[in-house]
Design goal:
Strand order of the largest sheet: 2-3-1-4
Radius of gyration: 24 Å
Shape: elongated
CATH architecture of one domain: Alpha Horseshoe
Strand content: 5-15%
Helix content: 55-70%
Number of helices: 17
Length: 348
């Protein structure tokens, strides 16, 4: 299989759009583009060897990159080609986006921003939304949500990437526990007219409505997804969330004895929490909860994403405005349970 077909993390429609950026000028490489679009990668490689005469500057390097199995080799090809300062602007833009795609697929978010820096710093007019989308997602991966939102909001309504950018803005709104803002972005994404991402938007609206305690509205969205998009990844994700919630409720459904920890009333606005463990496997986190839930019935499992985009499952209890109070409770838990705890700052 071709390298690009396995490394891109965005929609197939975007892959086609990226090809179109270069394909209209490829009189000599039309057959390569056709074979690539059909998924016939070995044939496309052979066609590339026969069809380089007449290719415009940078075009051969772009196709060689797309048809290279090894991402490291593809990056070398692209960066060597970018050293040619005489490249046309469209070829340089396309290569920078190819580098960004490769680095994003590997979780190298700083390298994504480095690849796009020259383009973003230019004052040559409106950039394709694809550039802002890549940069925004990289910033999100680095935890810089404010700049991520600024980048994603820079995608104009007429741009093909507009709906997807609005979807991610809504997703960030959910991360920041602002369901009303998330719903506004999801509605704006739907107005963009891209029907292909409707299941993802519906899943986002489902999460936002549940967070806003609109269970009826969430149930209506779930019913429509089941009727019209029964095989969608969005529906599978919702089912996963519901299954995990059921598992967690089962893990916590153990009668608490009379000598359980007398935890302080939880304040939902508190920025501090007591963390008892962190696991890469959710099953291990649930097993931890089952082990100690009789003594600490307020245990919960928080799913968080690290700097590399990988998920961790952290077992925590309580929310506190006062860190001193959190430390007092943590010391009590340590004595009772015989384990070490840490105070986690939820605002970071």
């Amino acid at each position: 299989m071709g390298r690009v077909a396995t490394s891109l993390t965005f929609r197939p429609a975007i892959i086609v759009a990226l090809i179109v950026l270069v394909a209209p000028a490829l009189a000599a490489l039309d057959s390569v583009a056709d074979l690539f679009g059909a998924g016939q990668y070995p044939e496309a490689r052979q066609a590339l060897l026969r069809s380089t005469d007449g290719a415009r500057p940078g075009e051969e390097a772009i196709w060689r990159c797309r048809l290279t199995e090894d991402p490291d080799e593809a990056l070398v090809l692209l960066r060597e080609a970018l050293d040619d300062r005489g490249l046309p602007e469209i070829a340089r833009l396309r290569m920078a986006l190819e580098v960004a795609d490769l680095e994003f697929a590997r979780g190298h978010y700083r390298e994504v921003l480095a690849a796009l820096a020259e383009i973003l710093n230019e004052e040559s007019g409106e950039l394709p939304g694809e550039v802002y989308l890549r940069a925004g997602l990289a910033l999100r991966g680095l935890g810089d949500l404010q700049r991520a939102r600024e980048m994603l909001a820079s995608v104009r309504p007429h741009d093909p990437s507009f709906s997807l950018a609005r979807y991610y803005l809504g997703d960030i709104g959910l991360d920041q526990n602002d369901p009303a803002l998330a719903l506004r972005y999801f509605d704006s994404a739907a107005d963009g007219g891209d029907r292909e991402i409707w299941p993802r938007l519906a899943a986002g609206r489902w999460r936002a409505l549940r967070n806003a305690d609109d269970q009826h509205g969430a149930a209506q969205i779930l019913e429509r997804l089941e009727q019209e998009y029964s095989g969608s990844l969005a529906l599978l994700e919702i089912r996963r969330i519901l299954r995990e919630e059921a598992d967690e409720m089962a893990a916590r459904a153990v009668p608490a004895p009379a000598d359980t920890v007398a935890t302080q009333p939880e304040d939902s606005s508190g920025r501090y929490t007591i963390q008892l463990g962190a696991f890469s496997d959710r099953a291990l986190a649930l097993a931890f909860v089952e082990r100690f839930v009789t003594q600490c019935p307020t245990l919960r499992v928080d799913q968080v994403q690290d700097d590399r985009g990988q998920y961790l499952y952290k077992v925590r209890t309580g929310r506190f405005i006062n860190p001193a109070l959190a430390r007092t409770e943590a010391q009590r838990l340590e004595r009772l349970l015989g384990i070490e705890t840490i105070i986690a700052d939820l605002s970071r």
